[in-house]
Amino acid sequence: MALGLALGPALARALGLALLAAGAVAPVKDPLLNVCMDAKHHKSRPGPEGQLYEQCSPWKDNACCTANTSSEAHKDQSYLYNFNWNHCGVMPPKCKRHFIQDTCLYECSPNLGPWIQQADSSWRRERILHVPLCREDCEQWWEDCRDALTCKENWHQGWNWATGRNRCPWGSMCRPFSQVFPRPKDLCEKIWSNSFRYSPEPRGSGRCIQMWFDPARGNPNAAVAKYYAWRKRSSAAEGEEDAAPESARAVRARPPPVLLLLPLAPVLLPGGSQPWGSL
Ligand SMILES: *[C@@H]1O[C@H](CO)[C@@H](O)[C@H](O)[C@H]1NC(C)=O
């Protein structure tokens, strides 16, 4: 017997509409949500990682990092980036924990999609730019590091790598963080060349990314990514309404060039570890 006869025509129609709606929604995967960037140590797709180490463990239900990466993130000079936190004497633990957390967020978070950009560098194809870091996370980072010492404002570039680990370049002096980075905003934005943006929004607002969170209540950054992905798309759509002629609209509807380039990119990358900072 046909389904329509068994259920009655009205119900069958309603069921048909529901199936159609589900079909229309389900297969569309938002490319900005639940993704891993294409960088040095990231997995290709996020997924559960039961064994994530200490400060990275909040991401264990859904992570872009492996257990190995999470444990390396806690080491002083890990194989991840060969980066030396202690370039101006030993970095105090209360300061270092923020750098470890920052590494965990960078390596493990599947919620940075709205801020992933192409990177012009030999060791990663993508980077993050302007991730809005919650004000308290930035302020606490600055507060706990204000008396630690460093010789550089941008930790991505300009080190002396002659010995295989980063040392202060000639002519630079070790000074307190509070002098190198007068405000929390200076620290969070400048240290990794604008990977972060200091957000005026507070933790829990759903409008900024938290470096620290309690996994018992889920990962708060998933909703934040969703909000910014939606905002990105709706502002792009508004721009089109305003000015773009029909042809320009068609061009913009294509997938972004970064997606088109990805399959070609492996050829461009030399293997081996590169002596640059993390993030
Ligand atoms: C992680 O993997 C690297 C490369 O295979 C290895 O050298 C390192 O010892 C591993 N670290 C841990 C903590 O297992």
What does this molecule look like?
The longest helix has 23 residues, at 221-243. With 279 residues, this protein is mainly α. The protein has a domain at 1-17 and 92-98 and 109-157 and 171-271. 36% of the residues lie in helices and 6% in strands. The strands form three sheets. The chain has a two-stranded antiparallel sheet. The structure holds 2-acetamido-2-deoxy-beta-D-glucopyranose. Residues 68, 71-72, 79 line the site of 2-acetamido-2-deoxy-beta-D-glucopyranose (NAG).
Q: Nearest-angstrom radius of gyration? A: 22 Å
Percentage of residues assigned to helices:
25-40%
Count of β-strands: 6
Uncertain segments are: 1-7, 242-278
Tell me about the largest β-sheet: 2 strands, antiparallel
Q: Order of helices and strands, N to C?
A: HHHHEEEHEEHHEHHH
Distance between the termini: 61 Å
Structural class given helices, strands, pairing? mainly alpha
Largest beta sheet: strand ordering: 1-2
Q: Give the overall shape.
A: globular
What's the tally of helices? 10
Strand percent estimate: 5-15%
Mean pLDDT: 82
Unique ligands: 2-acetamido-2-deoxy-beta-D-glucopyranose
